[in-house]
Write a structure and sequence with these properties.
This protein is 62% helix and 0% strand. It has eleven helices and no strands. α3 packs parallel to α6 and α6 runs parallel beside α8. The relative contact order is 0.11.
Length: 117
């Protein structure tokens, strides 16, 4: 879907619903989406909800936002691996990720991995 997005007519590349549909099919489409879409917090949040694997392509400033991380790990706890250290150290986000997929614990901060409470 990502190469298809690159090959799409400019009008389609600028169409919000078309790009979101491409992201839903292939997370990489967020990586090649226009800068305007990638800078749009609402668009990016919707993309993550549609395809949590797109979290890895979310701009760094948004990946640091707990709301974006939570949207991703609620659907796929393993997306915690793409979160920055300050997110991996948040008990609420890590707990959500681990409840969704126990294997996510390996991506938590060392302090949380060693915390038995």
């Amino acid at each position: 879907a990502a190469p298809a997005l690159l090959d799409a007519a400019p009008a389609l590349q600028a169409d919000r619903e078309f790009v979101l549909a491409a992201i839903q099919l292939n997370a990489t489409a967020l990586h090649v989406a226009s800068e305007a879409f990638r800078a749009d917090r609402s668009f990016v949040h919707q993309a993550v909800r549609l395809n949590p694997a797109s979290f890895q392509y979310v701009p760094a400033d948004m990946r640091s936002d707990p709301a974006f991380a939570l949207a991703a790990v609620q659907q796929d706890g393993l997306e915690l691996r793409h979160a920055p250290p300050q997110i991996r150290a948040r008990r609420d986000i890590v707990t959500t990720a681990v409840l969704q997929n126990g294997l996510a614990l390996q991506f938590a901060s060392a302090a949380l991995q060693n915390d038995r409470s």
